[in-house]
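User: Can you predict the 3D structure for this chain?
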Amino acid sequence: MLKHIARKPAALFKITVALVAFVIQPMAANACTSVALSAADNVRMYGRTMEFGKQIPTKIGLIPRGYEFQSQINNEQGHSWTGKIAVIGANIFDSSAVVDGINEHGLAGGALYFPGFAGYKDPSDDAEQRANEVNQIDFLVWVLSNFKTVEEVKDNLDQISLVGTFYENMGEVPPLHYTLHDATGASIVIEPINGEVKVYDNPYTVLTNSPDFEWHTQNIRNYLFLSPFDTGSTDIMGQELTPFGQGSGLLGIPGDPTPPSRFIRALGFITTVDAAELHKDPLITTDHVMNNFDIPKGFVRPTMSPTEQAQEADDYTQWTAIADLKNRRYYFKTYENPTLYQVSFDDFDTTGSQLRLVELPATEQPLPLLPSAQ
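Assistant: Here is the predicted structure, written as structure tokens:
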């Protein structure tokens, strides 16, 4: 069911309720930020950061057409399917589960943490119904391995039932929502709320974390005064006053790492980025945008007792991914190694049947600018 935000008569009430729920929820470690940028000649770039407190073992997965998938529903077999489309993505815990990726037709997207708001449909006790269920971890790879465009995804969501299951590797029922973009310029957000799968067209192309997407879109109205252009001088009681320096048009843009603030800041970047620069070098431009959401260890810390803090790591950017939807390339860098590495569908056999997992690059020392003296 496609929800149109502008047609919600009770939007203000829902925003208030969402904000209260967001404030009282215990904050889990999560700070993912995703955007898509577009320019002339069908240039379309997608980028996202992956933040978490606990280390999430991740490898680059090369998944060919014909790969056999099996979704597990609380240790029972759920929906199984044969992939129709090859996928490159970020696979976690040495599995076929993809939390971010791109397919060979230029459909790309990611699963982002959605604590306090994700409400899945419960798994069925009936084996026949369970055969149609896909868990929240496998949902993204089901989408990427089956469909070419956002429109196809919207038309076929009723093929399966998205359910929430306990994921032993993370010790929880992971609360997730999903962002998807395609090479045609379309973008959507998919959110499980109160047992219903809600689908929103996303003209802003931005997604962060809680509250829900509808709340974030209404929150934009609080920042309509922002501008990339500097403010001019102002006369106050006969005194001409000028700004201290560059950037005065953006004075007041939120700089904290909360999801609402990152949503506004990401929207600010992608709506003001130089289109000529994006067209000239889309990868470098997208990389510079994503750098603004990189969180070093120690900046975001959970509120816990000293004993708990010793067991729980600070939230930080474990990796950043960028997908070139036009040229079907996937780029990746990690906290330990900020060099971008590239992989494309020409790098593996897309007609095979075996999943290949590639280790992320280890720490690399900076290259010397000058040759060593001999």
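Confidence is low (pLDDT under 50) at residues 1-29. The first helix runs from residue 11 to 24.
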